[in-house]
Amino acid sequence: MDIIVIGAVAGGATVSSQLRRFLPDARITVIGKDSRMGFATCGMPYVLGGLVDSMDSLVSVTPEQFWDKKSIDVRLRHEALEIDRRSRSVLVRNIVTGETETLHYDKLVLSPGGSARNPEIPGSPSIPIFTLRHFGDMVNFEDYLESEKPRRGLVIGGGFIGVELAENFRSLGIITDLIEHNGRIMPIADPDMSGLLEEEMEKNGVTLHLGKEVCSVDSGTVSLDDGTEIEVDFIAAAVGLEPNTRLAEEAGLGIGPTGGIETDPFMRTSDPDIYAIGDAAEGRDWFTGKPKRVPLAWAAHRQAFIAAGHIAGGTTEMDGLLGTSITKLFSLTAGMTGLSEKMLDEENMRYETIVHESRSNAGYYPDNGKLRLKIHYDPDTRAILGAQAVGEKGADKRIDIIATAIRGRLTMDDLAAIEIAYSPAYSSPKDPVNMAGYKSM
Ligand code: FAD
């Protein structure tokens, strides 16, 4: 069987590896535009901030290793230009030489990810503007930071990538402003949780401009719509992601309402010989079953496993997505899983909320931190609908417990009953998760 995979980073590297495990005799070819394969995209902000000192440490595998160990032919600096579904072939161009070639497939997997959106900035700004999506973006940005040693930077966008960039610029000593056109940072979270993160950013020297837009950039002066002027040396734009659907669209594959490539529970597109996974693919929400796209690494890797299994004859289905996520922001961690207040309101779902504020573990133990845990649940069935945690310690563990509880269809009563490991360094005899369960009774 000939299998072609388009995209060689998160989903592409994993799906091809899994395919080799399941199908020892298949001819597998992976086409990737970037100069590296399977690199840890999520580590890029920390390379810029100097916490990770070598960008090569983000690259865990090379095409040579894939060939030697797995007999998978990875062609980097190659771009898939066109899919011909009738002849089951892909037109591929070598970006370096310009040569093209047509490759046949029996099964095709699309994992082309997304492209960073560019912010709308009137005129032609005379200062550098960076986005961070590909390995090459990081190389360029890192070169600039090293050679120019900028004093002031502006981040546009207060989502995951924007806040991580702001933290990393601060650790380089860069005076940092952040603009978010929504009235708060991390707008995916509930407003009170965003508020805690905003305080933390300001405490750490990030000047926030919330509910504002850039009007103009004139040789280093950025003007906002409220008249504020900010002197900056560079702009880092983190204003979202466009799923890379061009190939799929031109091939006539279905595109769903979230803008991602439509898939069934086996990650098949509207053509049963073509699969789509990762940031470009549309899945379903765990609770509502409605179309949902979660452009995060867990989804890409899980979908890769499901698609590879199905190509090999397996029947494991992709369940709905919870959108579980986490981020570090200076001394705080913010995690969430399931539905937020906004999502629940949009769905007209009835819910009640428990907020529990405590220490992460025994208060007398030296290493403990503040933790705010918030859980939304259905008052009739007591099913858990979503949770958010922000704190100095232990937010990750509580969010992961609750994501597991949702998946296991546990209720708020079960949260009180989970027998959680306790010793003073880790928890309390009544863990915050247990307490949230008790408080809801
Ligand atoms: P990608 O990993 O982006 O791979 C797609 C590849 O396909 C790219 O190399 C692209 O160039 C290539 N491609 C596109 N079109 C073609 C074509 N026509 N021909 C050949 N190649 C093509 N997620 C988390 O869960 N946690 C995090 O902490 C986190 N941090 C992140 C930080 C940053 C700065 C960024 C940018 C992303 C982060 N993510 C994080 C998101 C995560 O990296 C993505 O969800 C994941 O990489 C998606 O995998 P993918 O295979 O769909 O796309």
Secondary-structure map:
Blueprint: E1 2-6, H1 10-22, E2 27-32, H2 44-48, H3 63-70, E3 72-76, E4 78-84, E5 89-94, E6 100-104, E7 107-110, E8 114-116, E9 129-130, H4 135-148, E10 152-156, H5 160-171, E11 175-180, H6 191-203, E12 206-210, E13 214-218, E14 221-224, E15 229-231, E16 234-237, E17 241-243, H7 246-250, E18 274-276, E19 283-284, E20 291-292, H8 297-311, E21 325-329, E22 332-338, H9 341-346, E23 352-359, E24 370-377, E25 384-391, H10 395-407, H11 412-417, H12 432-439
Parallel strand pairs: 1-2, 1-7, 2-3, 7-18, 9-16, 10-11, 10-16, 11-12
Antiparallel strand pairs: 4-5, 5-6, 8-17, 13-14, 14-15, 19-20, 21-22, 22-25, 23-24, 24-25
Bound molecules: flavin-adenine dinucleotide.
Specify the number of helices. Answer: 12
- Protein structure class: alpha/beta
**Could you tell me the number of beta strands?**
25
Largest sheet: 5 strands, parallel
* Contiguous uncertain segments of 5+ residues: none
Question: Radius of gyration, rounded?
Answer: 23 Å
Helix content: 25-40%
Bound small molecules, by name, code or SMILES, are: flavin-adenine dinucleotide
Strand content: 25-35%
Strand order of the largest sheet: 3-2-1-7-18
Mean pLDDT: 96
N/C terminus separation: 57 Å
Shape category:
globular
